[in-house]
């Protein structure tokens, strides 16, 4: 099985972009790139520390540059940060360099998944559910606008989500299966 284009996974924090992305990359035999990890390697610190020290605008500048570098690289499965869609140039970059898959989750489901996570700067607030609802209201239209495909994460297993993405890519003609070897 081979893929003719990169796959960019977008969605709110906790929607499964990294977990699903790793499995999808393994299934397709492609490299997996986590934009947040690439940013941390680029800045030499955690995103949380950089965010607190430099602010969100500086972080978004770095994020845009790292995303553009990744998009220009080899075909791969890319897990983006939850806010990557905030900048129009990022949305355009992803759509031009690959297929964008929106992993859609409800704020309530995300709050359940993230209730013990202390590494997400935007969710270190008194009412994380209210913050997730605010992020959903702000970002859902941008995810939907960016996406070639939308997959509801809800309750399916990671393997089922990967199968759903592969099926969408196959139907759209982006996945090629190797012909059977002669007998």
| Alpha-carbon distance between the two ends | 19 Å
The computed structural class is alpha/beta
The percent of residues in helical segments reads: 40-55%
Helix and strand succession?
EEHEHHHEHEHHEHE
Give the overall pLDDT as a whole number: 90
Give the number of DSSP strands: 7
Q: Report the sheet with the most strands, covering strand number, pairing sense and barrel closure.
A: 5 strands, parallel
Radius of gyration: 16 Å
How do the strands line up in the largest sheet? 3-4-2-5-6
Summarize the structure.
By secondary structure, the chain is an alpha/beta fold. It has eight helices and seven strands.
Which secondary structure elements does this structure contain, and how are they paired or packed?
Layout: E1 2-3, E2 6-10, H1 17-28, E3 32-34, H2 35-43, H3 47-54, H4 56-71, E4 77-79, H5 88-97, E5 98-104, H6 107-114, H7 128-146, E6 149-152, H8 158-171, E7 175-176
Parallel strand pairs: 2-4, 2-5, 3-4, 5-6
Antiparallel strand pairs: 1-7
Helix pairs in contact: 1-8, 2-4, 3-4, 4-5, 6-7
Explain this structure.
This protein is an alpha/beta fold. Helix content is 52%, strand content 14%. The protein is built from eight helices and seven strands. The chain has helices at residues 17-28, 35-43, 47-54, 56-71, 88-97, 107-114, 128-146, 158-171, and strands spanning 2-3, 6-10, 32-34, 77-79, 98-104, 149-152, 175-176. A five-stranded parallel sheet has the order 3-4-2-5-6, with helices on both faces. The protein has a two-stranded antiparallel sheet with strand order 1-7. The two termini are 19 Å apart. The model has no long low-confidence stretch (mean pLDDT 90).
């Amino acid at each position: 099985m081979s893929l003719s284009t990169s796959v960019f996974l977008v969605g709110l924090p906790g929607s499964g972009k990294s977990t699903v992305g790793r499995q999808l990359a393994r299934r397709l035999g492609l490299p997996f790139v986590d934009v947040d990890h690439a940013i941390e390697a680029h800045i030499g610190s955690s995103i949380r520390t950089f965010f607190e020290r430099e602010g969100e605008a500086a972080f978004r500048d770095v994020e845009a540059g790292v995303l553009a570098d990744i998009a220009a690289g080899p075909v791969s499965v890319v897990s983006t940060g939850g806010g990557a869609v905030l900048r129009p140039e990022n949305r355009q970059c992803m759509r031009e360099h690959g297929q964008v898959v929106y992993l859609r989750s409800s704020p309530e489901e995300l709050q359940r998944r993230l209730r013990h996570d202390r590494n997400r700067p935007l969710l270190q607030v008194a009412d994380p559910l209210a913050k997730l609802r605010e992020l959903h209201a702000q970002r859902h239209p941008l995810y939907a606008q960016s996406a070639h495909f939308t997959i509801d994460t809800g309750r399916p297993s990671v393997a089922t989500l990967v199968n759903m993405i592969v099926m969408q890519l196959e139907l759209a003609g982006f996945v090629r299966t190797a012909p059977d070897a002669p007998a």
